[in-house]
Amino acid sequence: MALTGLDIYKLLPKTNCKKCGRPTCLAFAMQLAQKKANLSDCPDVSEEAKNTLGAASAPPIKLVTIGVNDKKVQVGEENVLFRHDEKFYHPTGIGITINDDLSKEEFDERLKKINDMKLTRVGTEIEINLVTLINKSNSAEKFTEAAKKINDSSHLSIILSSTSVDNMKAALATCAEKRPLLHGANAQNCESMAALAVEKKCPMTVTAPTVEELADLAECAKKAGVEEIVLDVSGNNPKEVLQKLTKIRRAALKKNFRAIGFPAITIVSEEDPFQEISLAATYLAKYAGVVVVNNCEPWGIMPLLTVRTNLYTDPQKPIQVEPKLYSIGDVKDNSPVMFTTNFSLTYYTVQGEVESSRVPAYILSVDTGGTSVLTAYSGDKLNDKTVAKAMEDCQVASKVKHKKLIIPGLVAAMSGKLQETLGWEILVGPREASGLPSYLKNEWHN
Amino acid sequence: MEIPNVAEKWTSSVNEITIGATKEKGGTREKTITIGGSKCIPFMDFDGSHGHKPVIAMDVYDTPPDGWPETLIKPFADVLNDPAQWAKKCVEYGADLICLKLEGIHPDKGNKSAAETADITKAILAAVGVPLIIWGCEHDEKDNEVLPKVSQAVKGENCLMGVVTQDNYKTLTVTCLADGHSIITLSPVDINIAKQVNILVSEMDFPLNRIVMFQTTGALGYGMEYTYSIQERERIAALTGDKLMAMPVICDVGHEAWRAKEAKSEDSDAPQWGPREERGPMWETITAMSLLQSGVDIIRMNHPKAVAAVKKCIDRLY
Questions:
Q1: pLDDT exceeds 70 at position B212
Q2: Which 424-443 residues of chain A touch chain B by CB within 8 A?
Q3: What ipTM, to 2 d.p.?
């Protein structure tokens, strides 16, 4: 279990030497307990303390890195079961499969499609992380050739999947420097697959039908010297898979059970894409570190990536857009001007509706610290002065010839004061952003 | 290797509510729906019983819906003007319940009268055998004028009616109490207000075990995570003994998901997102599937393809 600040203090030199940069040993101990400091900051710490604290401070779920450089995927090292308790730290790696028994044309076409799976929604590009090569042919030659092709022509991180250690070894010769995740170790081949992973310094998965056997295999891999292990809980029974994921997460976090303190992978393979993406999204929410699917269509992958974006958002931090004047469409000096807040959800909802109205318009995003219209208004962050300042900062008056400002219907109450402060005509817009298209088409005249 | 037992011992459970009444109970429904009763984190029945399976309510509007994309109109094209036939179609598509959304009573959207609305409601009950949810237009004065009359007209049918808010709850609470319906309490993604509305309604002697909670639903990509976390907190509060949070939860997935650009954009506007015939139903499906992990008992949905996918997936996870 985690040590308290006082437990840690007892192990420190208690000299208050300040060499760690903190005023006292107790202050340093408290920060260590909160994981805001590193033990290495103390130059005088004893070996005994190092061992005790080192073991206790190791994260309950090991961080596993797949791939290298800026495209690497890091999963694991999570602290909570529920995002509202803190947050989820390392977004689930999302991968798409490709089989090595495809014809050259089919293979090239699918690989290109996987490489191009980048989607832009609400102004942000989202992307998958992993291409998963399956040794469906059972041939070492085909597997190796395909691995080489991926190594040469994909920017994504790689999962190599084969239960044959020989085939894995051959394929790995072409792409080991990309640090792929080796998928295929089971009760029959665990030791030799682990030896390969150690030799090539790659992370590896272990596959077994029960959580108990997964723990045994993880132990076997660990003994062989593999540090970064991923537990494969894929299976045909969704209920069983989901429950295993929760059991593994709970055992690591609540029981500090190190034997399965690793991230998990689920490879979801369903004939019906709706079932496949549904299950992938479900496992992503609770608690897969890596999810792999066969579906390679934007209408399947985009919702999956969006679930990840949503659930891995820091729940304590409101997400903001830059407070500035946004031009939507081909704006002219007679285009309508409206304002909203810089809470990204609010802003993008308004932006979406303005876009769908096809009326070119300016949206002024007022800095409200990332809060919504009503919250900002109640907290006095959205008032005549903050709006006037935003108008001034963005030089709105120089962009349009008219002096008409559309305000959110929810804050109709501020129109009088705002008119006085700005000297602009205030038009009260709809209460909901969804009313904007009809408002802009029917009510706006200039 | 032996794995430590990680089953949680929850001290309490989600309330059970039955919606609909058969002939023996004074109604006309062929079947009733019971929700709630869970003693565990969603789908983790090694903690304790997972109670009743989450159910799907399909929306029927009292007036042809405004702004529905073609993908969504297609499966209902011949019935959008006829709520009773529309409801029948929903049952064919697998709806466990019908949610009658009274959009057309809104002063700006048709201003339908109470008498007309009562007739529509009775026509739906005559056309289908599943239980009914009746959802107002969220214009306080108009809801307070229409909903009591509708409630009286379907007295004894044990409907689920809503929504009440902390600013407008008295009329509908009294009505549902008198006519034997259950009630939906609304809070705007705020757990404290959720509790407050439940307190206000229960202070009028409305039984807690006839309340269903509604947190305004955020669609996938548009605030889903806010709804998710509030509902997850509500579920944990219910399991740890908070009687004012022990109500089953309803989500409005269909309406919210289909407002999203990702669901409704035409193919010509978003060629990079793939065909809307798949994209729209998938967006609705995944909004529902994600929220199910937070603890939901009734999901309001629209597209038959999404309904079928979610129902099948619930069966497999349950």
A1: yes
A2: 434
A3: 0.97
